[in-house]
Specification:
By secondary structure, the protein is an alpha+beta fold. It has helices at about 1-20, 25-40, 70-75, 85-90, 105-120, 150-180, 190-200, 205-215, 215-230, 235-245, and strands spanning about 45-50, 60-65, 95-100, 125-130, 135-145. It folds into two domains: about 1-180, Transcription factor LuxR-like, autoinducer-binding domain (Beta-Lactamase, 2-Layer Sandwich), CATH 3.30.450.80; about 185-245, Arc Repressor Mutant, subunit A. Helices cover about 55% and strands about 10% of the residues. The longest helix has 30 residues, at about 150-180. The relative contact order is 0.12.
Amino acid sequence: MGESFDNTDKAADFFTTYDALMNARDEPDTVKRLQTAAQNLGFDKVLFAVIPQPKVSTSNIYLRSNYPDQWREHYDRNNLSATDPTVAYCFKSSAPFVWMPHSFKTPEQQALYEEAAAFGLKVGVTLPIHGVAGEIGMLTCVRDENPGPAFLKDLNENLGGLSLLRDVAFDSLQQYMHAAVAPADVPSLTARELDCLQWMSAGKTAWEIGRILNISEAGVNFHISNLRTKFGVSRRNDVVVKAIRFGLITLPG
């Protein structure tokens, strides 16, 4: 009877926590409630990161965390995402990635783990995110505790709650991920520029686009030059990347 009561009581706590998260006032309040929910499950540090649209550079990631600022600066400055096994893992897997010393295989990954541990990021779990619109990301919850059986036992008891938290956090923050690019930031394009943009995304050359649109190659290059100016980039490929980010074009799956 006691165990049944405890399970019912825990389920009620889950409902209260996640209902509060879904009904947060705004983005800062949502992030704060996410961190509180993770703390209630035994994790004092949280990182929520999502690439809002498929086939877009990781530089356009939506990221919120309460990791130590010095660690985040060190991580970004040294491009440690290229070494971090949790990043590559989330692109190919859906099961949780448990943070333990043996989870970091290569010498570079082991060095990354040692550096993170020095900032109090010693044990935890990364839960991959795969959204229905192609979003890819993670919810990572960690704490400053030496790895061992006690942590694994506690994680086993709370993994269901953490998985639910991952899903509710994604639903709660989704509107802010996709609003990261404000409509006011999207440049106004002419119909011909949109035509060129669509064919650029399909990999067509200026000569091929000219044949398709029945205009000269010089005319196509003129429109592409205008697109570069409007998007504030110097390379043709960056025009396409920004257009995808703004939602002006979509690439086939």
